[in-house]
Amino acid sequence: QVQLVESGGGLVQPGGSLNLSCTTSRIIGSNYYMGWYRQAPGKQRELVASIARGGSTNYADFVKGRFTISGDNAKNTVYLQMNSLKPEDTAVYYCVIAFSSIYSPGYWGQGTQVTVSS
Q1: What whole-number distance in Å separates Cα of residue 68 and Cα of residue 81?
Q2: Bridge partner residues of 48 (DSSP)
Q3: What confidence tens digit (pLDDT) does each residue in 25-82 have?
Q4: How wide is the angle at C-alpha 104 spanned by C-alphas 60 and 58, nearest 5°?
């Protein structure tokens, strides 16, 4: 069993920044993706960003230019730097690990709340 521990959520004003982090409980191999999904109240869960073990990244259009995903393989940790936050970014953010496709995560974190409000 793999556990994902997230941190870094909170309340921030529009235009502000937050940095989320997610650490895995154990090494899970050499071929996987890590990423972040989010779910706002009354909306479906959506993929925000992902990073492959080799370092290639992908972003949803609604965060391109504002969010940056990065990873530290030595620490089994992935980060999501979120800048220029908007009220519509308010959601619970979930860290995931996937092995064949980022759209079919095998493990989910417990989620961390991000609230963007003045």
Answers
A1: 5
A2: none
A3: 876 777 889 999 999 999 999 999 999 988 899 999 999 999 999 998 888 899 999 9
A4: 25
Backbone phi, then psi, for 89, in 5-degree steps?
A: -80, -5
Helix (H) / strand (E) element for 44: namely none
d(CA 73, CA 55): 10
C-alpha–C-alpha distance, residues 72 and 118, integer Å = 33
Measured between alpha carbons, how far is 2 from 16 in angstroms, rounded to an integer?
Answer: 32
- Give the distance from CA 44 to its chain's centroid: 16
**CB contact at 8 A, 71 and 81:** no
For 75, residues 6+ apart whose C-beta sits below 8 A from its C-beta are: 23
Average pLDDT over all residues of the chain: 94
Number of Cβ within a 10 Å radius of residue 9 = 18
Residues 29, 108: Cα–Cα separation, whole Å: 17
